Amino acid sequence: MSARNWDAESGRQIVRAHKHLDGALLPILHALQDHFGYVDSAAVPVIADELNLSRAEVHGVVTFYHDFRDHAPGRHVVKICRAEACQSVGGRESEAHAKQRLHADFHETSADGRYTLEPVYCFGNCACAPAAMIDGKLHGRVTPQRFDQLIDALEAKR
Predict the structure, then answer these.
(1) Residue 2: pLDDT over 80
(2) What is the Cα–Cα distance from 12 to 134, expressed in whole angstroms?
(3) What is the Cα Rg of the chain in Å?
(4) Is the C or the N end of the chain the one with fewer CB within 10 Å?
């Protein structure tokens, strides 16, 4: 996913294209994040205006769900499962290793802009724990060694 800078006209078109759906707020937020890579704070008043909601209501939903970002992500988005099943089979070790390897904590992007690290509370891949998702692709049994293999493969594609 490549992030794009917020563009009010494109943003408003996305909002208008989804505003007639039942429970339109979440589909709109997902569509904005799919398009821009994040939900810019400038989108909040646009959404509020189009859906006849208060800015506080829209902001509350954006900040409640951890999946929505308020800034552009790195070139690669790495999600680490923090649920109990993953933690019970070495997930904490893998999590600490990922933070060290990527030079980023959860909800952060590495200084070089390459990686954004995000926590997730279950991918539903418990039988293959610990799990991670890199650029939308789910991986199971992600030990620190396996994590390095996955990141090394990304690095080799550069």
Answers:
(1) no
(2) 30
(3) 17
(4) C
Domain architecture of the chain: domains with CATH: 8-64 (no CATH), 76-156 (3.40.30.10)
**Tens digits of residue pLDDT in 81-137:** 999 999 999 999 999 999 999 999 999 999 999 999 999 999 999 999 999 999 999
Sheet containing strand 132-134, edge to edge, reads: 108-109, 115-120, 76-81, 132-134, 137-139
For 115, phi then psi, to 5°, come to -130, 135
Q: How far is Cα 100 from Cα 75, in angstroms, rounded to an integer?
A: 18
Is the N-terminal amide bond of 130 cis, ω within 30° of 0? yes
* Structural contact between residues 18 and 27, judged by C-beta atoms closer than 8 angstroms: yes
> What is the spatial distance between Cα 63 and Cα 93, in angstroms, rounded to a whole number?
28
* Residue 102 and residue 78 in contact, taking contact as beta carbons nearer than 8 Å: yes
Query: What would the two tokens of residue 18 be?
Result: 């989804």
